[in-house]
Amino acid sequence: MTPAARLQAAIEVLAALEQTAEPADKALRDFFRARRYAGSKDRAAVAERVYDVLRHYYSYSFRMQSSWPRRLVLASLLAEGADPAALFTGGQYAPEALDAGELAAIGATPGDAPKHVQGEFPAWLEPELTAAFGESLLAEMSAMGARASIDIRANTLKTSRENLAAALAEEGFEAQPTPRSPSGLRLSGATTAKLSASKLFLEGHFEFQDEAAQVCAELCAVKPGQRVLDYAAGGGGKTLSLAALMQNKGEIIAHDISAARLAMLPPRAERAGVTIAKTSTNKPSGLFDVVLLDAPCSGTGTWRRQPELRVRLTLERLAELAALQAELLVKAASFVKPGGKLVYATCSVLPRENEEQIARFLAAHPAFTATPFFHATPHRSQTDGFFTAVLNHA
Ligand SMILES: C[S@@+](CC[C@H](N)C(=O)[O-])C[C@H]1O[C@@H](n2cnc3c(N)ncnc32)[C@H](O)[C@@H]1O
C-alpha cells in the first residue's frame, strides 16, 4: 500500500468504529481480513495511525473543528509536521483531495484549548475526573494517553517469577519485576503477539495481566482449601490468579452472566494447570469464604489500552453501569459466609463506580466493614487505573 492508501485505510477503519461497539483492535483485524493484499507493515502503519487519532481524539477534533474521520487523520498528519495536500490527492487509493472547508481548517489558528481538550477526555466527564484526581488531573490524563507496558503474571503453579524471568531472557525477552505484585513481570520492547507465541506462554508459565489486577487478586487473601466465588469472572483472568494463590486447592466457582465469556476459561485453565475452577451462569449455591465482584464498569482505567472507550462512554451508560454495580454488589454480598470477605473491584477511576458504591453499600449493610481502598492509576503506579475494596463480613 502507498502511504496515501494507508491513510485512506485509517479513515475507513475510524468510520467503521463509529458504527460498532467492537474494540479498535477487532475493527482493524476485520478490516484487514477483507484485504489480504495488505502486508504486515501496512497493517502496522494503519493501526498506528488509528491509535494516534484515538489517543488525540479531542485535541484533533478541536484543531480541525470536527470529528469526522478524514479531519482527524488530517490533524494527525499536521501533528507530525507532514503536508496533508501531498497525500490527500484524490489519486488511486488515496483520500479525496482537500476541500475548501478542510483547507480553511488547516489554515486556521486554534484558540486556547479547554481542559478536556488538553486532557483528551469528553467535556462532560470533567467534574467526575476532577473529583477523582484533583490537581493531578492533567498528569493522570497524560499518563492515560501513553502506551501501556506489557505486564505478565508468573503462574506459580508452574514456575516462580525469578525462573520465569530467566527463561524469558533465554528467549530474548527482557523482563523486570513489578514493584507491587510478587508474581508480576513488566516487559519493554516485546509485543503481545511474540510473547503469546512463546513456548513459555503456550505451556502456561505466565498470563497477561496488568499489575493492578494482580494486586486485586492478592488482596482477596484467599487460602488453599477455601471456597471462593468469582461472581463476574468473564474470561477468568482473576480466577486463574486466585487458583494460583490457592495452590490449586479448594474450589472456585467462576460465575458470569455471559456463557460466551466463561467459555474462554476452560482452555486457559487447562494451559495453566488449574483444576479447581468450575464455570457457571446459574445462581451459585451455598456460601463462600471469599466473593470477588470484578464488576462491569466504564473501563476508564484502561484508556491506555483501549483509547476508543473514552469516545464511546456516555452519561447514560455510566448511570446504567452504576445502577448495575450497586445491584451486583448486594447480590454478591449475599454469598459471603459470616467471617468471610467481599472484594469489589473495577477498572474504573471514577468515584461514582468506586468509593461511592462502597459508601452506599456499607450504609445499608452494617455487617460489612471496609479496609483501606487500593487505588491504582497510570501516573501514580504505572498500571491501568484500578480500584479494589476489601469488605470484611462480621
Ligand atoms: C470486568 S469484567 C470481568 C473480568 C474478569 N474478572 C477477568 O479478570 O478477566 C465484568 C464481567 O461482568 C459480567 N457481568 C455483567 N453483568 C453481569 C451480571 N448481571 N451478573 C454476572 N456477571 C455480569 C460481564 O459479562 C463481564 O464478564
UniProtKB/TrEMBL annotation:
Q: What is this protein called?
A: 16S rRNA (Cytosine967-C5)-methyltransferase
Matches recorded under SUPFAM superfamilies: S-adenosyl-L-methionine-dependent methyltransferases
Q: Name one Pfam family in it.
A: Methyltr_RsmB-F
- Source species, please? Rhizomicrobium palustre
List the PANTHER family: NOP2 YEAST -RELATED NOL1/NOP2/FMU SUN DOMAIN-CONTAINING, RIBOSOMAL RNA SMALL SUBUNIT METHYLTRANSFERASE B-RELATED
Name the Enzyme Commission number(s) assigned to this protein. 2.1.1.176
One GO biological process this protein is involved in is:
RNA methylation
Q: Which InterPro entries match?
A: MeTrfase_RsmB-F_NOP2_cat (IPR049560), MeTrfase_RsmB-F_NOP2_dom (IPR001678), RCMT (IPR023267), RsmB-like_ferredoxin (IPR054728), SAM-dependent_MTases_sf (IPR029063)
Q: Which family does it belong to?
A: Belongs to the class I-like SAM-binding methyltransferase superfamily. RsmB/NOP family.
Output the superkingdom of the source species. Bacteria
Annotated SAM-dependent MTase RsmB/NOP-type domain ranges read 140-394
Q: Which residues cross the membrane?
A: none
Q: Which GO terms label this protein's molecular function in UniProt?
A: RNA binding; RNA methyltransferase activity
List the active site: C347 (nucleophile)
Q: Which UniProt keywords apply?
A: Methyltransferase, RNA-binding, S-adenosyl-L-methionine, Transferase
The residues the record assigns to binding S-adenosyl-L-methionine are: D256, D294
